[in-house]
Design brief:
Elements: E1 2-3, E2 10-11, H1 14-24, E3 32-33, E4 40-41, H2 52-58, E5 74-77, E6 84-87, H3 98-103, E7 125-128, E8 135-138, H4 151-161, H5 182-192, H6 204-207, E9 212-215, H7 219-224, E10 239-242, H8 244-251, H9 257-264
Antiparallel strand pairs: 1-2, 3-4, 5-6, 7-8, 9-10
């Protein structure tokens, strides 16, 4: 029989007594016995010790009882000062004592200047500036087809190299004077468009001057087309008023010709021009 420790009621099984004590007396009875202090304690899973204190007192973690034990310290001789020192085998191989680790020459960084650098390829070389022919020193990695000595020479080289046919937007160059009829049709376009940009609406007053007048079909097309002259480009249905900003956008194709014709109220492309 199993007696209840609180009310002395007898039970045929230990489980019956435990259920009774938890339900009636609102306290669980010990279900484990500590392997160190042998006192009873409650635990829902298998445990040998009732507390961390009993675990520490019962189990030694010193020396070989430590789960990380690697055989204790080992003696070695320092490579620099030749003194004997001890180190744990779990650390890297004992090569230097603690003093030499702090002060030994191996701590100094290697010389990486000039020829001692693994990427050394001869240093700077003397070359001539492509523009002014002044002698300048440059690393091999900085020497290409063009070498310049200053921002001024670079700007001059860019200006000369990317002018005319060298410019990616080259379209044949200047077509020369616009000739007869241009002044008149320009004046008519400004009057028709109210002296304002037909694309963004900027006025003569906003710009401080009249807007530009842009040819929808470029003058060069008339110049190069058989049976036409440059003056044939100067008709009211082929020109629109644009501010300088919109004029540049139109020249580079960022504003469509169809949109400009619609905004200016121009119905069709000038006839017989093969664009």
């Amino acid at each position: 029989m199993h007696d209840c420790p609180s009310c002395n009621r007898a039970f045929e099984t230990e489980r019956g007594r435990s259920v009774h004590h938890t339900t009636v007396h609102d306290k669980r009875l010990p279900n484990r016995v500590c392997s160190h202090c042998e006192s009873g304690f409650v635990s829902d899973y298998e445990r040998k010790y009732c507390s961390e204190t009993c675990l520490d007192n019962a189990v030694s973690r010193a020396g070989s009882n430590n789960p990380n034990y690697r055989g204790g310290k080992t003696e070695a001789t320092c490579r620099y000062c030749e003194t004997t020192f001890e180190y744990y085998p779990s650390e890297k191989s004992g090569l230097l004592c603690s003093e030499c680790v702090k002060t030994a020459p191996w701590r100094d960084p290697p010389a990486l200047e000039g020829g001692t650098n693994s990427r050394w390829n001869g240093g700077k070389q003397s070359v001539e500036c492509t523009v002014c022919t002044a002698t300048i020193d440059r690393y091999p990695s900085e020497i290409g087809d063009v070498v310049v000595c200053s921002a001024r020479c670079r700007a001059k080289w860019l200006s000369e190299s990317f002018a005319g046919e060298g410019h990616p937007n080259w379209k044949g160059g200047d077509t020369g004077p616009y000739g007869t009829g241009w002044a008149a049709v320009r004046r008519q376009a400004l009057e028709r468009d109210g002296h304002r940009c037909i694309n963004c609406g900027e006025t003569k007053e906003d710009l401080g001057r009249n807007p530009d007048v842009h040819h929808l079909v470029p003058v060069r097309v008339f110049v190069e087309a058989d049976g036409f002259q440059r003056t044939d480009a100067h008709v009211l249905d082929n020109v629109v008023s644009l501010c300088p900003s919109c004029h540049r956008r139109a020249e580079f194709g960022h504003i469509s010709e169809a949109d400009l014709r619609e905004r200016a109220g121009i119905d069709s492309v000038p006839s017989e021009i093969d664009k």
